[in-house]
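TA notes. Do not distribute before section.
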Amino acid sequence: MPAGALLGGPYSGTMIVTRASIVDELVADQTQWPFTVPAVAAMRREGMSFDRPVTFLVGENGSGKSTIVEGIAEAYGADVRGGHIGRRYASPGTKGPLGSALQLDYVTGTNMRRRPRGFFLRAETAYGVFGFMSDHNVHGYGEEHLLHVSHGESFLQVFGARFNEPGLYLLDEPEAALSFSSCLALLAVLDELGRTGAQVVCATHSPVLASLPDATVLQLSDDGIAPVAWSDLALVDHWRRYLAAPEHYLRHLLPRT
């Protein structure tokens, strides 16, 4: 499968993971979720290749983008709840069915005995992870305790303190806590990571994040996985049409309109 559709010129950053593939022998039951999700089924047939430091996965709810990011995180050895990669107190919990069956191919010369650093941000568990780190004064989770800042500000603290070195950054809908301007701030962070030796794989609903120049954009749908130019994304088309004329959508939803 082609790696992706680009908006601009190539990055010069260093890759870490070049491919994620599903090992059939490790799949307990191919007729059960998540292997029945079209994008995961496509990944099982063809794998998912990465040839740019930043890759976005976009698609509707249930399309498999978060499932795939979580599976890659588990295969890489991240705590399934999220947080910085490589810490000794990672979750001992059993991997999910996809994470257990995934094989990651690394760039030649990557020393997996000293696994590159990085971060797994899982929006649904981030508050608990950040709170734990704040309570234990773990470096890199912000100077101010989680309870003293807003949800979005806690994310920005982590981006500023942790997203600043080579490693693998796996993000599951990071825009969930962010305003428009904060999404732009994260966009700049991801661009800098991609240019300074890090790799990013991000599942998102945000047309702002997916607009990052030079990034690969993969659209997940009932047809599987396909590289798509940002301007051709269904996500972008819907937002454009809604903002131009919201009444065209609202009249089907709200009786008074």
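Switch to the second chain here.
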Amino acid sequence: MIKGQQQAITGASRPAATHDDTGPAEDQSGAATRITLRPHDPGTGEEVEKEEVVKGYEYQRGQFVTFTPDELKALDVESSEIIDLEKFVPRGEIDPVYFNSPYYLYPDGPIAVDTLRVIGAAMAELGVVGIARLTLSRRERPVMVEPRGTGMALFTLRTAEEVRAAQFGSPEGDLDAEMVVIAGAIIKQRTGKFDPSTYRDHYQEALRELIEAKMQGRAVTVTRPTPVIDLMTALKSSLAHESPAPKRSTRATKEAKPAAPDRRQPALLLPVTGGRTRKAGAEPATDAARRRKRG
């Protein structure tokens, strides 16, 4: 058992774009205001009072079972500050697709300090992590804990039914040996240590720039990268970016115009078809991620 205090690892504030009733940019001369969403009957359009709203489950199209607050309250799992470690497993056995939210677990009192240090040292020596259950937001979740200094890192885990099986197709034909060699050369040149500070959310940065430009009345030019179509062309282009550029004369360097900033991370260029075609693009591995993407 471990007693401690948990604190979310992630939680940085991020700007978010809000919606209003205005039309295109040229029509945004009027004052903007926030909108309020109110519950209403989709059939009649009449507004529904808050006390009339009940919780339920749609088991067939248009067929519901409803629940009273007492019925749902009876399902609550008792919260506890004690994390009961049920099992220890090698860290490498847990597929990252099951990881959900990370937390820091701090000791709560002198007894908890010694407990975390002793268990953490033993876990680190054996190369294992602990698996337990924890109640968060009225829901019992499986969690993984691993030692981090004098405390622990805690990761909530997805259950097996929350993770969708991969639907990868069967490979057809032999791989192009030249493309494999080029890809290998790029990978070797870019192999190094992971530094999270080098990766940024470029959308959020661009959104902040857009907000500042709007506040100052400046115009913003939006540039989009050219899509990559052919894999061999993409690989050779990536390899060319890794090769040292030829030296130029001082005069040519001074006369050269500064290029527009490229917000994209340096990456191995791969052709990914755009649009809404799922077969050619990335697909969420979990049902929860799928719902968030649709929303």
